[in-house]
Specification:
By secondary structure, the chain is an all-alpha fold. The chain has one domain: Arfaptin homology (AH) domain/BAR domain (Substrate Binding Domain Of Dnak, Chain:A, Domain 2, Up-down Bundle), CATH 1.20.1270. The longest helix is centred in the N-terminal third of the chain and has 98 residues. It starts with a helix and ends with a helix.
Length: 241
């Protein structure tokens, strides 16, 4: 009678102990895991947003530089075209005063001076066009091209690291899922082995017990291996940030 009374109590107390321990472990591990996951996700999203802000700011600066370069180039071309036209008109006026005017006439001399002044003005605009081209347009163009190459190289490097980080996170998620599945299988095998050890459930032959023992060892080994892979994947994912 004593055996019939105490055996169910022992079984129920053992089951209650298991349930309590699992509830404690799940309650203690779940907040930390979720908090780490949410913290990591929020950090990654904020870093990505910050990089996109920097990328947008630099791209806007590059577009402004391009527009400024075009404006200065057009100004230089306009100055050169104006100088060419003014020099052409100056030549026509000087030829007119020389070929058709009277050399001793004050009016003719006045127009001759106007023609020379037009040539001087044309030379000023020609020099301005050259200065704009040599000292503004060409250096600014070289600067813009260098900045574009540097920006593209940096963006390519960041995008490559981002893809690698994403791959690491995906591998981490797969390793976590696999580790959870293997742990569940290991728990089921351990429960069956414990039931056999305590004399619960159906009686197994020696051959079946040997198979169960081998299965339990394989489950334990698989659990250790998956836990190690999950730990390694977590480290790689954090180091890739």
């Amino acid at each position: 009678m004593s055996n019939m009374v105490h055996k169910p109590l022992r079984r129920s107390s053992l089951a209650l102990h298991r349930m309590n321990s699992r509830m404690k472990s799940s309650s203690s591990s779940t907040p930390s895991t979720s908090s780490r996951g949410s913290s990591s996700a929020s950090t990654a999203s904020s870093s990505e947003a910050a990089f996109e802000d920097v990328r947008s700011y630099i791209k806007s600066g590059g577009e402004f530089t391009k527009e400024l370069l075009l404006i200065l180039q057009e100004r230089s071309d306009a100055e050169a075209a104006y100088a060419k036209s003014l020099s052409k008109l100056s030549g026509r006026l000087l030829r007119a005063t020389r070929d058709h005017g009277q050399a001793s006439s004050s009016v003719n001399n006045a127009w001759h001076f106007i023609g020379e002044d037009m040539e001087t003005t044309a030379e000023v605009h020609r020099s301005l066009a050259s200065v704009l081209s040599e000292e503004c347009v060409k250096p600014l163009k070289s600067f813009a091209e260098a900045q574009h190459r540097s920006r593209k190289s940096l963006e390519s490097s960041v995008d490559k690291r981002a893809r690698a980080h994403g791959d690491s996170r995906n591998y981490e998620a797969k390793a976590k899922s696999k580790s959870y599945s293997v742990c569940r299988d290991n728990e089921r095998v351990q429960d069956v082995a414990l039931d056999c050890k305590l004399g619960r459930g159906k009686n197994l032959s020696e051959k079946e017990l040997s198979k169960l023992h081998l299965k339990r060892k394989k489950a334990e080994e698989a659990t250790r291996k998956c836990d190690a892979e999950y730990y390694t994947s977590c480290l790689k994912a954090e180091r890739s940030r």
